[in-house]
Amino acid sequence: MDFLISLHPLAAALLIFFLRIIDVSLGTLRTISVVQGRIELAVVLGFFETFVWLTAVAQALMGVEKHPMLIIAYCAGFAAGNAVGIQIERKIALGIVVIRMFSSQAGGAIASALSIAGWQPTTFQGIGAEGPNTMIFVIAPRRRTSELLETARGVDPHIYYSVDLVREYHGGATAALSTPADWRAIFRMRK
C-alpha cells in the first residue's frame, strides 16, 4: 500500500470516495442477502466488502492529518454508496415475490391473460368494501414483477395489488422457480 501514500491528495480523495461507494454497495447487497437467507452470497460479498473497506480506511487514515478533505471523501463515498447499492439491488432484483391482485370486474380475464403469458395464477372469490371481487395470487421472480403487473394492468388498468418478498416456498407452481439458469443460481439457498 506504499503507492497510496504517494498519491496526490485529490487523487487519494477520489480513490477513497470510489472505494467507499464500492464497499457500501457491497454491504447493501450483503445485508439483503443475509435477510433473504442467501448464506453463500453473503459470505462472498462480506469478504470483498471488508477488503475494500480496509483499503479505504487505510488510505484515509494515512493522510487525514495533512489533508482533512479525505474525511469528506470518506463520508461522501459512504452516502453515495447507499444510493448506488440500492440501485444495483433494484436492477438485479434478488428473490421471489408473491403478488396479490384484486379486481372487481376482470378477475377471470386477468387470470386467463396471466396463464396465457406463462404465469400460474390462483384465484379466490371475495367481498371487498365495494362488493364482490376476485383475488389473484402469483408467485414470481422479483425481477419479473413489472412484466407480470403490466400483463394484469393490460386487462384491468384499475387493478389493486400488493407485492411481498417470499422467504421460503416449496413445490406446486413454484417448482420451476427454484432452478434458474443464470449466474446467481450458484448463490441460491439450498432447500
TrEMBL record:
The compartments listed are: Cell membrane
Protein's organism:
Lacipirellula parvula
TM spans (from-to): 6-29, 41-62, 68-86
Q: Which Pfam families match?
A: DUF2179, DUF5698
Q: Give me the Gene Ontology terms describing cellular component.
A: plasma membrane
Q: How does it sit in the membrane?
A: Multi-pass membrane protein
Name of the molecule in the record: Integral membrane protein
Q: Which CDD domains match?
A: YitT_C_like_1
Q: Which UniProt keywords apply?
A: Cell membrane, Membrane, Transmembrane, Transmembrane helix
| Residue ranges occupied by any DUF5698 domain in the UniProt entry | 28-86
DUF2179 domain spans which residues?
A: 122-171
Primary location: membrane
